[in-house]
Specification:
The protein is of the alpha/beta class and about 550 residues long. It is built from 17 helices and 16 strands. The termini are close together. The structure holds acetyl coenzyme *A and pyruvic acid. InterPro entries: 2-isopropylmalate_synth_dimer, AIPM/Hcit_synth_CS, Aldolase_TIM, Citramal_synthase, LeuA/HCS_post-cat, LeuA_allosteric_dom_sf, PYR_CT.
């Protein structure tokens, strides 16, 4: 069967009549927007994230390809890794972005000349420096322990010093919204001071992420009347408002938006650029990256990998599930016209439509899958109903085919009567032996299989029973099918089904395998973890050996 990639499917995307346009309120729609990425600085402040200097360089290059305008690379006064990053970046030409060093205003006890933080910022040799300072009287008195007047001095002379050394300065007004709500006049005085000292941008920060969109709108509108330099917004996500707050700020005329890829950042994260950018481009018609928007999913995945985080499938726009349809009613409609259940075309952000196979699907979804293998059947064909029944029965037993397209393809071929098994299992045995209380257990597996008329019997050891079984099976099969040498086990997941049965529970094993050009998932279910593993392993091998074009 020739399988067509689901990526090649292009559902119709048409509307019978034009929708009414609800206008956005943007004051100055013509003003060019600046996308300021702080994945490498504020994103690195996320729990569980740690970038090496080399990681940071790779991410910076990727962000440059994406076309962001500014990349905040780190705080050079904070650690040697960040100093190293700025050193390396001096030797790497970027096409679109400028790299920015970040740090605070001088310490109250230091002069600007002696302040180590300002010295390190200058030593990073970036054209632009982003300096953050205190806005909120609470922070001035309780965190810094200085007078309100002294804080204004810190802001003014730190910025003026960096300007005198030929740097452009962007000023991050930390806790601007909380500060404004407590003492509006003082909050405005801090940013007036920054502008007077030469700051070219003033970025209003919702540092604690506690502001609501209507507060952001009202306060930004006041600041727009007071401050002549272009403004920015830097929002945190503690109330899950960071994206909304950033967009509302832009609607009031703010031109720089700060955020991180995938929204990573301290506590609940920063404003997610992977949502902000497509919302700007596709919903507000404000160009941010232009034709590079379609690189967004790729960049999102790259940062997840480098940060060593679990991908969030359900992330808007760029998650694997963002355009995945599971409900039968949805699938039925979306296959006729994608607009029925998709708010935008997934390809605009580099994503794709997916139709999932599950017991929530009806025959339309199944037919779509079958058609992807080049088979045309009518909706009421007996085979379709038979396969649907098998699928639902399997899902009822605990199988899940959403992440196991390899097992699904085998199931479908078996139902259609076109599958020729590559081997027959005659038996396996797995032994785990522990001889001493403090000794490591030994795992050994033997496998007997038949290929054509030839019986093969092999044994292998492994790091654990699964590994031993995998080794023994491959050892038995590789002389018949040398192409199996290129198959790698990429992921192995076990999920306990109905945990209330304790160690008697059924488990579902999901295996992801891959070779140099393809990746596939397979599944097994049993009360016995080794049997569940066997099913998933055997499917993985069978899938690899399918005759494909
Ligand atoms: C909202 C934000 O995300 S701001 C960025 C936050 N990010 C980070 O803090 C990550 C990097 N930070 C670090 O590595 C360290 O905190 C350093 C190197 C900057 C400072 O380390 P230390 O000198 O040991 O100070 P420590 O971390 O204990 O305390 C922070 C210091 O900064 C001072 N400080 C904080 N904000 C400001 C400011 N806006 N202006 C001047 N000084 C400030 C505090 O008063 C305190 O100084 P003190 O010890 O003299 O009272
Ligand atoms: C500057 C910054 O990161 C903040 O205020 O959140």
């Amino acid at each position: 069967m020739a399988r067509k990639s689901s990526q090649t499917r292009s559902s119709r995307r048409t509307l019978p009549e034009e929708p009414v346009v609800i206008p956005v309120l943007t004051v100055d729609r013509a003003a060019a927007l600046e996308v300021y990425d702080t994945t490498l600085r504020d994103g690195a402040q996320a729990e569980d994230v740690s970038f090496s200097a080399e990681d940071k360089v790779r991410v910076a290059q990727k962000l440059d390809e994406l076309g962001v305008h500014y990349i905040e690379g780190g705080w050079p006064g904070a650690n040697p890794k960040d100093i190293e990053f700025f050193r390396i970046m001096k030797t790497i030409p970027l096409k679109h972005a400028s790299v920015i060093a970040f740090g605070s205003t001088r310490k109250a006890s230091n002069s600007v000349q002696k302040d180590q933080n300002l010295q390190a910022l200058l030593a990073a040799e970036t054209k632009t420096i982003t300096l953050f300072g205190k806005t909120w009287s609470l922070h001035v008195t309780d965190a810094l322990g200085i007078s309100l007047a002294k804080n204004l001095e810190l802001i003014g002379d730190s910025i003026a010093h960096l300007k005198s050394k030929g740097r452009r300065v962007f000023y991050d007004a930390e806790h601007f919204f909380d500060g404004y709500k407590t003492n509006p006049e003082y909050a405005l005085n801090t940013i007036r001071k920054a502008v007077e000292a030469g700051a070219e941008r003033v970025i209003l920060c919702d540092t604690n992420g506690g502001a609501m969109p209507w507060e952001i709108r009202a306060i930004c509108e006041v600041v727009r009347q007071e401050i002549t330099v272009p403004l920015g917004i830097h929002a945190h996500n503690d109330c899950e408002m960071a994206v909304a707050n950033s967009l509302v700020a832009i609607e009031t005329g703010i031109i720089q938006v700060q955020g991180t890829i995938n929204g990573i950042g301290e506590r609940c994260g920063n404003a997610n650029l992977c949502s902000i950018i497509p919302n700007l481009e596709l919903k507000m018609r404000r160009p941010a990256l232009g034709d590079r928007l379609s690189h967004l999913k790729d960049v999102s995945g790259f940062v997840t990998e480098i940060a060593n985080l679990m991908p969030n499938k359900h992330q808007p726009y760029v998650g694997d599930s963002a355009f995945a349809h599971k409900g039968g009613v949805h699938i039925h409609a979306v296959l006729k016209n994608a607009l029925t259940y998709e708010h935008v075309d997934p390809t605009r952000v580099g994503n794709r439509q997916r139709v999932l196979v599950s017991d929530y699907a009806g025959r339309s979804g199944l037919l779509d899958k079958i058609e992807a293998y080049g088979i045309k059947l009518s909706k009421d064909h007996a085979k379709v109903q038979e396969l649907m029944d098998t699928l639902k029965a399997r899902e009822n037993e605990g199988y899940q085919f959403e992440g196991a397209e390899g097992s699904f393809e085998l199931l479908m071929r078996k139902a259609m009567g076109t599958h020729k098994p590559a081997f027959q299992l005659l038996g396996f045995r797995v032994i785990v032996e522990k001889k001493q209380e403090d000794g490591a257990p030994l795992s050994e597996a033997t496998v007997m299989i038949k290929v054509g008329g030839v019986v093969e019997h092999t044994a292998a050891v492994g790091a654990g029973p699964v590994n031993a079984l995998d080794h023994a099976l491959r050892k038995a099969l590789e002389k018949f099918y040398p192409q199996l040498q290129e198959v790698k086990l990429l992921d192995y997941k076990v999920r306990v089904l109905a945990a209330n049965k304790g160690t008697e529970s059924k488990v579902r094993v999901l295996i992801e395998s891959g070779d140099h050009k393809d990746k596939w998932g397979t599944v097994g279910v049993s009360e016995n973890i080794i049997e569940a593993t066997w099913q998933a392993l055997a499917d993985s091998i069978e899938y690899k050996l399918l005759a494909k074009p």
